[in-house]
Amino acid sequence: MTEYNFLKACWGQSVDQVPVWLMRQAGRYLPQYKAVRAQGGGTFLDLCKDPARAAEVSIQPIDILNADAAILFSDILTPIEPMGMKLDFVPGPVFENPVRTSADVDALVVPEDMAAAVSYVPAIIKRLRLAFAGRVPLIGFGGAPFTLACYMVEGKGSKDFASLKQMMYSDFPLYDALMQKVTEMDRRYLNMQIDSGAQAIQIFDTWGGILAPHDYERYILPYVKLLIDGLNRDGIPVIYFVKGGGGMLDLVKQSGADVLGLDWHVNLGKARDILGPDIAVQGNLDPTVLYAPKDYIEKEVQRILDENGDRPGFIFNLGHGILPTVPPENAIHMVECVHRLSQK
Ligand code: CP3
Fold first, then answer.
1. Is 26 annotated as a binding residue?
2. Which CB contacts under 8 angstroms, 24+ apart, belong to 179-183?
3. What are phi and psi of 318, to 5 degrees?
4. Which protein residue has the closest C-alpha to ligand 1 atom 2?
5. What pLDDT sits at residue 2?
6. Cβ < 6 Å from ligand 1: which residues?
7. What pLDDT does 41 receive?
8. What is the distance in A from the centroid of ligand 1 to the CA of 212?
9. Enzyme catalytic residues
10. Among 90, 172, 252, 311, which one is least packed by beta carbons within 10 Å?
11. Among the atoms of ligand 1, which is closest to the Cα of residue 243?
12. Which residue has its alpha carbon closest to ligand 1 atom 39?
């Protein structure tokens, strides 16, 4: 039914060549990104809210890397702004009024109409669908509820997100009220992306791996399930990436996603043995391997292709986002190796 290798692989169908894209493929490692980012002298958020420039940086890695899928250019935290939280990037994200009390949670708005609340997002998606016109499929994305809550409660990045974990362990009703609101916002936000033309959805749970498996099961999984269950998924594959989720794949699989993203702390072949044939996987090259010489990158690509073996339902990716100081030619080389070495 679908003709793109990326979408076929999401559905577990066989392909003539393994599809590949890179998490954070539009970004600062590309001089072309930095040039567009510098235009007008605005901030990163200004770029996210300018549909013409945002679409341009989303297209760049398709032209430069020859990636098999494009991803919407935005950030997981942009839809939190219309919930009533002031967002800045310095360059890491900062909320000046973090959520700590029940009054804070009560004050959070769950916009009825996400297309109106973040109107630049459907505008970018529509531009990209027109620009790609059948060349590559477009992935929409959002943060998983837990990862979004990490930033909302902490107010910024953190090693351990102690403020959120304190709320979670000491005041579960408050944590639950926050998570219900974030999950409902997320559901509306991702469905709006599907309505606007996104052809797959990736949910980033960057911090999902900071909890023990039994805590993941109690404090994260129910909300992710609720979210994925509530998506208008007909024909739209859902990819769920939990950084650090390799030790609890049985639980992560219960999310109901069509594809699981893996980081590099698991052996891809062993992960597939645990997960079984009815779910696709995406991953999982250590992003720092892109600092290695070209022949080393090629060997690592071959190793991961070998770990996957002949199993259908495989999308090559990094195990986390590409780093800003990676030489672009090494990323180009990686994509070329995946295509050449997996060619049937
Ligand atoms: O993948 C893509 O090319 C699409 C764009 C995209 C961005 N952020 C743009 C961005 C995506 C998919 C994200 C997701 C995101 N954002 C995540 C989940 C994935 C992950 O990496 O774990 C998280 C946790 C964030 C939050 C965030 N945004 C952080 C922690 C930072 C600062 C650190 C950093 O990487 O700069 C950002 C800023 C950000 N988001 C930039 C870009 C291109 C850099 C901004 C700049 O140009 O200065």
1. yes
2. 179/145, 179/146, 179/149, 179/223, 180/223, 181/83, 181/105, 181/108, 181/110, 182/145, 182/148, 182/149, 182/152, 182/223, 183/145, 183/223, 183/226, 183/227
3. -80, 165
4. 24
5. 56
6. 23-28, 37, 44, 71, 73, 75-77, 89, 91-93, 141, 157, 204, 206, 321
7. 84
8. 25
9. 24, 28, 37, 75, 151
10. 90
11. 22
12. 75
What is the Rg, in whole angstroms, of the alpha carbon atoms belonging to the chain? 19
246 alpha carbon – ligand 1 mean position (Å): 22
Specify the CATH number of the domain 5-342. 3.20.20.210
The domain limits of the chain are 5-342
Q: Is 151 annotated as a binding residue?
A: yes
Write down the pLDDT at residue 1. 44
Runs of H (alpha helix) within the chain:
5-10, 31-38, 44-48, 51-65, 102-107, 114-117, 120-132, 145-154, 162-170, 172-196, 213-219, 221-229, 249-253, 268-275, 294-308, 328-342
| Contact assessment for residue 284 and residue 319, using Cβ atoms and an 8 Å cutoff | yes
Whole-angstrom Cα distance, residue 6 to residue 306? 19
**Tokens matching residue 321:** 């986002």
Residue 262 token pair: 């893996």
Per-residue pLDDT tens over the stretch 127-174: 999 999 999 999 999 999 999 999 999 999 999 999 999 999 999 999
Q: Give the Å distance between the CA of 313 and the centre of ligand 1.
A: 26
State pLDDT tens for residues 53-80. Answer: 999 999 999 999 999 999 999 999 999 9
Tens digits of per-residue pLDDT, 6-49?
A: 999 999 999 999 999 999 999 999 999 999 999 988 999 999 99
Does 311 count as an annotated binding residue?
no
Residue of the nearest CA to atom 30 in ligand 1?
92
- Helix, strand, coil proportions of the chain in percent (round to 5)? 50, 10, 35
Atom of ligand 1 nearest to the CA of 74: 5
Q: What is the pLDDT of residues 219-276, one digit of tens each?
A: 999 999 999 999 999 999 999 999 999 999 999 999 999 999 999 999 999 999 999 9
Strand partners, 95: 87
